[in-house]
């Protein structure tokens, strides 16, 4: 790999830069989403010939314009809470399929989801054991734990020991008996091992494993091999090879042609489409470090603090100036973890410079908080 991340061409470097400077002059902090980039990512995944249905994992970004854009691109939707189901129902046409994929949800969530058109995923025995009457006569999806997890950080791995997700395979036959006893049909199998995966081979392995499990369960019609498609963020990471992903999936499909293949990506569709705009505040030299303050922090974007995530940081006011300073870029929140980027080579900044934090379209605004009662970033959509 090279020095810069092997990412999609950054839309904010081009003609949109002036627009972003104007938007930042009106207000910061502010998220800006670029819909053409969402469409471009959507169409790339739509080119996966092996995949029969793509669901957008709504948790990554719930902005109505993004939901509408992905519905128009032919996406179905995956939701994890009644709130997400409502947000989607308010925007997308009734004909669009929905998945409800909760984890340790209260009984009331299943009651409300079963009253919608959503297909419900179970990932434990408990709902059938205790609330079996709710599911009688329904077709459900079973999420299994294939015994391993993957992803960009330990906290986003959703399989294997130590993860709370999925039914362990040694409980599968008991689950199937229970389903049978309650008049419930297991129509789909689901596995999602984690988030931020760049190796295409992973989904082929999951697909093959689910296919062979499905062979043991007569009623299965579709296999949902999850989301988790990563985007390169850290310098040196290489893009997920979508053509290779299709090749890998087609190979499995040739061996098990009788199941529909579903996926549910979130990040891949929206990460590069979003930026967080902030403004430079104070600077300080202390010990070996130079700190550059900006007017928002972990309250708007928690990923660096939570996962040590790397987001590219740009001084948009000085795009053409040499990067002669080495900064720790920090926010105004009263925690030492309120660092958005460490050791960043940037031009010498001035107060009020517009600072852009890239790849903030996924798991940015949706994970933000009112911490310290700082103003929340608002959201602006641009579509040209
Ligand atoms: N399906 C299921 C069952 C999931 O749990 C998730 C994400 C997805 C699909 C979508 O994954 P994606 O394609 O976006 O990787 N906040 C973390 C990511 C947590 C993902 C949680 N589940 C982050 O900012 O990296």
UniProtKB/TrEMBL annotation:
<feature type="modified residue" description="N6-(pyridoxal phosphate)lysine">
    <location>
        <position position="59"/>
    </location>
</feature>
<protein>
    <recommendedName>
        <fullName>Diaminopimelate decarboxylase</fullName>
    </recommendedName>
</protein>
<feature type="active site" description="Proton donor">
    <location>
        <position position="334"/>
    </location>
</feature>
